[in-house]
Amino acid sequence: MSDSAAELLSDLRQLRRKVRRDRHGYWLPLLLFAALILLAPLCYWALSAHYVSDPIPFTAMEIGSTPWHGGDSVAVWYWTIGLILCVGASVWWYHRRGLATGVEGRLGGYFLLAAAVPVALMFGGQLFELIVWSNYDISLYSRPEIIAPIVIGAVIVSGTAAFVGTRWKRLWVSAIAVVGLSAVVAFSAIAVFLLHGLVPLLIIAAALAVLAWLERSPLLAVIAVLFGVATAHANVSGLGRLLELDAEWRLLLDAAPPAAVLMIGGVIALVRSRRAAE
After folding, report:
1. Helices 108-119 and 172-191, packing angle to 10 deg
2. Which parts of 170-217 fold into alpha helices (H)?
3. Domain total of the chain
4. Selection from 198, 207, 262 nearest residue 231 by Cα
5. What is the pLDDT of residues 15-39, one digit of tens each?
């Protein structure tokens, strides 16, 4: 009897692992985000957008309006529209893949991410800037000491709510609402700096971390960590700045390592997915 129970548990574990493998489809989001990053230099060059790459922490600067207005607003809109399209395409892809394989997990987390990112990017960053600008006559763009605690606090609240919702199922709906609100706050704060360097990649890093948790994928977790490290390096120093290149080439070299991580990771994930399907 004990042998039968052990075999049953072993079969159940193998079946669970197979279901998770069949559900994995993160290779497409990785390649989409990689393409978005690699196309950024072309967008900046074609539209003569200014690549602001002063090292973090930002030096105090005076601007007459928010980064959403003026000649360089094209850079903000490139990242905003690009991120929204990539996240939306990823959610559509998971839904389609689930229908095709017959293994469709909970899509609540994916839809939550798909809703939080566009709301924060389209409205949150502007709202933060306008409130502070109208009341204190300063720009949050040059005040990272205000934004950083907001982002950190939102991440802590979101992580705590996700843990509570996972641990106590009856609180799942309330936890999801808190996670969604916290995600909007965090992404809105990051959106203030969309014009600066490669800060938009921080949103991709956060999205990959959430996706790794939803997928329960060790490979994607490793890719997310490596991408986070490459993104931090690109924003703090960057290859282009280390080599003292012009702004046009600096953007290309700064964006190359994070894009390479996603491209290589996406190819590896695609190969593994095809092998698992055979």
Report:
1. 30
2. 172-191, 200-215
3. 1
4. 198
5. 555 555 555 689 999 999 999 999 9
Confidence of residue 192 (pLDDT cuts 50, 70, 90): confident
Question: Does the model's pTM come out above 0.90?
Answer: no
d(CA 211, CA 107): 11
Q: Which residues contact 237 (CB under 8 A, 6 or more apart)?
A: 55
What residues have CB less than 8 Å from 144, skipping those under 6 apart? 56, 57, 58, 193
The separation between the first and the last C-alpha atoms of the chain, rounded to the nearest angstrom, is 35
Answer yes or no: is 6 within a domain: no
Q: Which residue has the tokens 């046009």?
A: 248
**Amino acid occupying residue 227:** F
Instruction: Check: CB of residue 107 under 8 Å from CB of residue 81.
Output: no
Diameter of the chain measured on Cα atoms: 77
Examine residue 260 and state whether it is found in any structural domain, yes or no: yes
| Core vs surface per residue 212-251: b (16+ CB within 10 A) or e | bbbbebeebbebbebbbebbbbbbeebbbbeeebeeeebb
Q: What is the pLDDT of residue 265?
A: 96
**Residue 56 three-state SS:** coil
Range of the domain at 205: 26-277
Q: Are 54 and 142 in contact (CB under 8 A)?
A: no
DSSP lists the bridge partners of residue 196 as 52
- Residue 277 CA to residue 274 CA, distance in Å, equals 5
Distance of CA 58 to the CA centre of its chain: 22
pLDDT value of position 275: 79
**Residue 87 in domain:** yes
Q: Is residue 57 one of the residues assigned to a domain?
A: yes
